[in-house]
Amino acid sequence: MEQKRTKKEYVEWTQKIAPKTHKFKNMILAFIVGGIICTIGQVILSLLLKTGMIKEDAASLTTLLMIFFGAFLTGINVYDDISRVGGAGAAIPVTGFANSIVSPAMEYKKEGYVMGVGAKMFLIAGPVLVYGIVASIIAGILYYIFTMRA
Amino acid sequence: MEFIRAFIVGGLICVIGQILIDLTKLTPARIMVIFVVAGVVLGILGIYPALVEWGGAGATVPIIGFGNVLAKGVIEDVEKRGLLGAFSGGVRAGSVGIAAAVFFGYIMALISKPKAKNKN
């Protein structure tokens, strides 16, 4: 019992003195992992542009492929490992958005294909779409008021 | 050269997310919501498109770039169709991303099994 408490105290003590280096390491890893994922996106984008595809289509197709990779790597249980290392570096890219869909959908498959897979796939993606779309509509209305009526 | 720029811009955006997670204890889900809304705001103000110009995929691959796409669509459609465009632009511009996420997300969830997790 006493040993347990000292162990707990020790953990608290290390957390008190260690967080700065810990956070710094997280930042570096997020930078590297996020940077690598975006560089892969840039390689795809540059290759597509080289084929003569128009800019907008190339950007859309790049997003589509990155989402596919994110979903695929989640399906084969690899993206979890990338997230463990990269933190926000894995969560912030669009591959992380795909991961946020596949991961809970897989997890809740046992609850059925409608309320399990169908509903839980939007556990995180739902809020992202709700706030993104609502913000864009408000932005559009403001844009209309400030630019179109003048 | 565009690869180095993509690495730097994409990496730095993710670092901002990591700092928010570590300092504010916000969950990754909330960070993603904040980033998308930030992308809409920076997009409508014309700030984010400049970052896309320089950083390429480094700016478009992070989820904040999706917010920028929504804003871009809204601007285009408001100029074309007026107020109706505020409702059509975002989803139209984001349609490939949304559809791809739903489609690949659903298919992958169907055919794969979660790894037996030991939660600790």
Q: Short description, anyone?
A:
The complex is a heterodimer of chains A (150) and B (120). Chain A is 85% helix and 0% strand.
Provide an overview of this structure:
- The complex is a heterodimer of chains A (150) and B (120).
- Chain A is mainly α and 150 residues long.
- Chain A has one domain (2-107).
- Chain A has helices spanning 2-17, 19-50, 55-75, 79-86, 88-91, 94-107, 113-120, 125-148.
- The relative contact order of chain A is 0.08.
- The model of chain A has no long low-confidence stretch (mean pLDDT 91).
- Chain B has one domain.
- Chain B has helices at 2-24, 28-44, 47-55, 57-60, 63-81, 84-93, 95-111.
- Classes of the chains: A mainly alpha (150), B mainly alpha (120).
Summary tags:
heterodimer, A: about 150 residues, mainly alpha, about 85% helix, B: about 120 residues, 7 helices
Low-confidence stretches of chain A: none
Chain pair forming the biggest interface: A-B, 79 and 78 residues
Overall tally of domains of chain A: 1
Distance between the termini of chain A: 74 Å
What is the number of helices of chain A?
8
| Structural domain count of chain B | 1
User: What's the total count of β strands of chain A?
Assistant: 0
Uncertain segments of chain B of ≥5 residues (pLDDT<50)? Answer: none
The percentage helix of chain A is: over 70%
Shape of chain A: extended
Q: How many β-strand stretches of chain B?
A: 0
Overall pLDDT of chain B: 94
Question: What structural class do the secondary elements of chain A suggest?
Answer: mainly alpha
Q: In percent terms, what proportion of residues of chain A is strand?
A: under 5%
Largest sheet of chain B: none
Helix amount of chain B, in percent?
over 70%
H and E string of chain B = HHHHHHH
Q: How would a textbook summarize the main sheet of chain A?
A: none
Beta-strand fraction estimate of chain B: under 5%
Class from helix and strand fractions of chain B: mainly alpha
